[in-house]
């Protein structure tokens, strides 16, 4: 590195002062134990505490377990919070609150396994407020003290609403994708003690240094299982590794599978407390009356309208689930035609349209809403009296989560589900759930369940069990699409090239599809990835979805966001190409083309052995100028690049007498070419300290 003595001296001085400040910060002790045990709670014997837990179906694992509370007055929460409970007509704490508050207020790390709607939000929210109040005030440039990570924008907004009920002097920012970044950035810059965020948008702001996590001492991972299901694990890991190790961490999840257990072991202290409400086996809420009706597919809409004649009132809320966007739209139109006010929310609706529909549903202007599973993720709407499964989900976990949106907070609810011949694979598990909850099972449903049991006896039966559900999606293709697929299969058998109709100028037909012009720059969020995956899954198994956002000024808007979808088979990719190319998405016309993994790559795509270009070295430009570069620049770049794989070396090269964008050149040498390729795709066009990064491959 060539630098003048003055610049070197200045950089060394700056580096030393920053390191001194950083070290001072890390040894700063913070308070996290605020629990004042009530005398009545202290008097409880071990046997009495265990008897109470059993009565509330609470299971606790850990060491030095605090006794549960039985009343709000025993919680050691401030009086103003207790007044809000009385105003909201809350009579007693929920099971997760009975054990969760003593643990969280004691400063312990907590894992809470409980369903959505169990009262978990204020279980972590109220101790957070006491924690933040006890810390030193924020200084200029400080980030938040408490951080909540949630999988969806809807859940983030719901936590924000609860926060607003109990806040006093505390400030918060709600950060999520799908909305303009400007207002959120201004909130962060103004200084907030609490940040409620979806991981993707927060990671973007951290990448541009809009905020930092140096002050975070209270971390909440809400619906951790959903974050893992949505593929947010690496993003969460990138965020959590920036936090101090002695923070307090609370994690809440509806399931306790191996992935969630691994996450808890990674992020929580060894003396953490695990609190489970309900049985180890996933069961339905017993406050929900379940009705499952076996019916023909063609008669569902008419049958539903007949049911509405008996149950519909303007003072109740009805949440209806459909499997696809098209089905949700079709059903909504049928309900409107029958003079029943309804609205639809699904992936093709803009965020503004979704928000308007939800607000109308909450305030009663539209008492019925039709939603897909993807669009309904994270929704927590009070006073839903009926959940209707117009289309059954594909697995029993989704069924339980769906009907769990009614019967919350001690109230009772009802669910109505339409079971058809296509849902046969669900019958066995569905009957078990109904029996466990003491619900009636139709004789026809028993027949389906018995057939499934018989099929499960043989491997051949297991292999063919889900054929109907797969075939249902493939039958939707237009006749000419089927003819093209037939031609492709014939050509492949004869070792001839595929028909020109599905050729792309971008490269040979492959199992990877590239979609463009679906959203504009800055509109990418985690919902987009899930919407694309949901849609593409109709045409075959999707291995992965990868989104590349290019920020270069010379790139046209329709080219700025490129979505790569890897299918398990080439045939599925071809079907998706024919179905999606030219289709409307959010008012835009989708451009689809086949993508050759040999050209660049997405992670885990293997270049052809004959391909001589296997780059290991990446050149990054326009990240800083000579005057703005410091000793932290190299460390920042190396740390970021290590997220894509092992980095062998990182070199910063300064050049004078050239344009500012070219003055600082950073060479990163990776151990594997796959890591280099992924870093290229991820970093090119990304914002860094207000600049747009340019990346290209360099000779090693």
The dominant shape is globular
Question: What low-confidence regions span 5 or more consecutive residues with pLDDT below 50?
Answer: 1-27, 458-485, 495-508, 598-613
Classification by helices and strands: alpha/beta
The number of domains: 4
Question: What is the CATH homologous superfamily assignment of the largest domain?
Answer: P-loop containing nucleotide triphosphate hydrolases
Mean pLDDT: 79
Global Rg: 28 Å
Reported CATH architecture of the largest domain: 3-Layer(aba) Sandwich
Domain DEAD-box RNA helicase Q: 70-98
Domain Helicase C-terminal: 306-449
EC number: 3.6.4.13
Keywords: ATP-binding, Helicase, Hydrolase, Initiation factor, mRNA processing, mRNA splicing, Nucleotide-binding, Nucleus, Protein biosynthesis, RNA-binding
Explain how this protein is built:
The protein is α/β, with parallel strands linked by helices and 700 residues long. It folds into 4 domains: 39-136 and 143-277, Rossmann fold (3-Layer(aba) Sandwich); 288-466, P-loop containing nucleotide triphosphate hydrolases (Rossmann fold, 3-Layer(aba) Sandwich); 479-594, Alpha-Beta Plaits; 617-698, Alpha-Beta Plaits, CATH 3.30.70.330. Helices cover 39% and strands 18% of the residues. The two termini are 18 Å apart. The model is unreliable at 1-27, 458-485, 495-508 and 598-613 (pLDDT under 50). This is Probable eukaryotic initiation factor 4A. Residues 101-274 form the Helicase ATP-binding domain. Residues 70-98 form the DEAD-box RNA helicase Q domain.
């Amino acid at each position: 590195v060539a630098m003048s003595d003055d610049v070197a001296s200045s950089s060394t001085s700056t580096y030393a002062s920053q390191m001194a400040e950083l070290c001072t910060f890390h040894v700063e002790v913070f308070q996290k134990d605020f629990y004042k045990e009530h005398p009545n709670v202290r008097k409880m014997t071990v046997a009495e505490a265990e008897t109470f837990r059993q009565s509330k179906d609470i299971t606790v694992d850990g060491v030095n377990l605090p006794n549960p509370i039985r009343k709000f007055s025993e919680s050691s929460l401030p009086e103003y919070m207790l007044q809000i409970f009385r105003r909201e007509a809350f009579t007693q704490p929920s099971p997760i609150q009975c054990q969760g508050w003593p643990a969280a207020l004691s400063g312990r790390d907590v894992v809470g396994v409980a369903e959505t709607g169990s009262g978990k939000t204020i279980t972590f929210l109220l101790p957070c407020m006491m924690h933040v109040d006890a810390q030193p005030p924020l200084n200029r440039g400080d980030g938040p003290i408490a951080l909540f990570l949630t999988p969806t924008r809807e859940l983030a907004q719901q936590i924000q609403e609860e926060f607003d009920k109990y806040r006093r002097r505390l400030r918060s920012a709600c950060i999520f994708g799908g909305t303009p970044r400007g207002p959120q950035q201004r909130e962060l810059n103004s200084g907030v003690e609490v940040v409620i965020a979806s991981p993707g948008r927060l990671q973007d702001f951290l990448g541009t240094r809009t905020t930092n996590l140096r002050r975070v001492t209270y971390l909440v991972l809400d619906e951790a299982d959903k974050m893992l299901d949505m593929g947010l694990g690496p993003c969460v890991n990138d965020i959590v590794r920036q936090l101090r190790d002695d923070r307090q961490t609370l994690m809440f999840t509806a399931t306790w599978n191996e992935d969630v257990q691994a996450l808890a072991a990674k992020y929580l202290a060894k003396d953490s407390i695990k609190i489970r409400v309900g049985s180890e086996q996933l069961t339905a809420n017993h406050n929900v009356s379940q009705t499952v009706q076996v019916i023909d597919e063609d008669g569902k809409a008419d049958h539903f309208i007949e049911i509405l004649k008996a149950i519909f009132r303007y003072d109740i809320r009805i949440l209806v689930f459909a499997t696809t966007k098209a089905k949700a739209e079709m059903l909504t139109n049928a309900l409107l035609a029958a003079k029943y006010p309804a609205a639809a929310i699904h992936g093709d609706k803009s965020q503004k349209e979704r928000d308007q529909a939800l607000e109308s549903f909450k305030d009663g202007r539209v008492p019925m809403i039709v939603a897909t599973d993807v669009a309904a993720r994270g929704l927590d709407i009070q006073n839903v009296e009926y959940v209707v499964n117009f289309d059954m989900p594909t697995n029993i976990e989704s069924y339980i989560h769906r009907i769990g949106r009614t019967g919350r907070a001690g109230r009772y609810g009802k669910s109505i589900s339409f079971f058809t011949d296509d849902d046969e694979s669900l019958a066995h598990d569905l009957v078990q759930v109904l029996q466990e909850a003491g619900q009636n099972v139709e004789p026809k449903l028993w027949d389906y369940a018995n057939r499934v049991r018989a099929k499960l006896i043989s491997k051949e039966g297991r292999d063919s069990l889900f054929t109907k559900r797969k075939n249902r999606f493939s039958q939707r293709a237009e006749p000419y699409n089927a003819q093209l697929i037939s031609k492709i299969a014939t050509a492949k058998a004869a070792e001839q090239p595929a028909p020109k109709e599905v050729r792309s100028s971008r490269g040979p037909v492959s199992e990877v599809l590239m979609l463009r012009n679906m959203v504009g720059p800055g509109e990418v969020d985690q919902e987009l990835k899930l919407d694309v995956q949901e849609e593409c899954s109709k045409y075959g198994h999707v291995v992965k979805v990868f989104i590349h956002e290019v920020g270069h000024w010379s790139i046209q808007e329709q080219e700025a966001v490129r979505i790569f979808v890897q299918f398990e088979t080439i045939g599925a990719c071809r079907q998706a190409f024919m179905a999606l190319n030219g289709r409307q998405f959010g008012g835009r016309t989708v451009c689809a083309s086949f993508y050759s993994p040999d050209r660049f790559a997405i992670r885990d795509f293997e270049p052809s052995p004959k391909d001589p270009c296997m780059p290991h070295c990446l050149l990054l430009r326009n990240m800083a100028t000579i005057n703005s570069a410091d000793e932290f620049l190299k460390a920042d770049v190396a740390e970021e690049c290590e997220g894509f794989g092992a980095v062998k070396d990182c070199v910063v090269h300064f050049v004078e007498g050239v344009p500012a964008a070219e003055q600082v050149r950073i060479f990163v040498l990776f151990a594997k070419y796959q890591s280099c390729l992924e870093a290229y795709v991820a970093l090119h066009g990304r914002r860094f300290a207000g600049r747009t990064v340019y990346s290209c491959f360099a000779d090693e």
